[in-house]
């Protein structure tokens, strides 16, 4: 889920999250939005307790599971941060977060430079992840993109067989170029018989 930088995340006591994972994600986005790093003193299946890493700051939030053990609720939260100095190299901006923030940009332009991605994140979210996180995020997104394409090409024979079943007397051929151990897709040819 890519958060909208124009929408402010606010946290309050009694706020409910659909899962622990969703609560962690929203808390991570909140910490990045507010420009502080989290110290996770408790982080297990039933409770989350986070504090601000700033020395002078006493901000703390405690979240625990409801009786269904799926949904979570904020039980306590202190009001504001004492340390208002923004953390630019925020550790909350992990590779997973960077992937979710840049996936659309990478999908639209797979050749986009890491510096462009870094500048985009800095201007939109006020953090500047280190370059290795940007490169890692780009590599993960490109692998996802490649696996999507590989899966689609793998479906071509299936689609050709469906075409033949639905249009008796038609012809469907998948052209593949054998390159040693690997195969490379060449063409998909379909000739439909008029019924």
UniProtKB/TrEMBL annotation:
It comes from the Eukaryota. Residues 9-74 form the Transposase MuDR plant domain. InterPro entries: Transposase_MuDR. This is Transposase MuDR plant domain-containing protein. It comes from Dipteronia dyeriana.
């Amino acid at each position: 889920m890519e958060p909208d930088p124009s929408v402010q995340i606010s946290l309050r006591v009694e706020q409910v999250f659909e899962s622990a994972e969703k609560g962690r994600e929203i808390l991570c986005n909140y910490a990045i939005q507010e420009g502080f790093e989290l110290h996770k003193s408790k982080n297990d299946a039933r409770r989350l307790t986070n504090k601000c890493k700033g020395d002078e700051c006493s901000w703390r939030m405690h979240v625990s599971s409801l009786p269904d053990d799926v949904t979570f609720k904020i039980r306590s939260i202190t009001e504001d941060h004492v340390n208002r100095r923004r953390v630019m190299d925020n550790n909350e901006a992990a590779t997973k977060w960077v992937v979710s923030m840049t996936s659309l940009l990478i999908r639209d332009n797979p050749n986009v430079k890491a510096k462009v991605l870094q500048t985009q994140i800095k201007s939109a979210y006020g953090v500047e992840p280190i370059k290795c996180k940007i490169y890692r995020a780009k590599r993960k997104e490109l692998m996802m993109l490649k696996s999507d394409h590989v899966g689609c090409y793998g479906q071509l024979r299936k689609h050709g067989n469906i075409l033949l079943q639905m249009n008796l007397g038609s012809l469907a051929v998948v052209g593949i170029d054998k390159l040693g151990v690997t195969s490379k897709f060449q063409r998909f040819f379909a000739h439909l018989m008029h019924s």
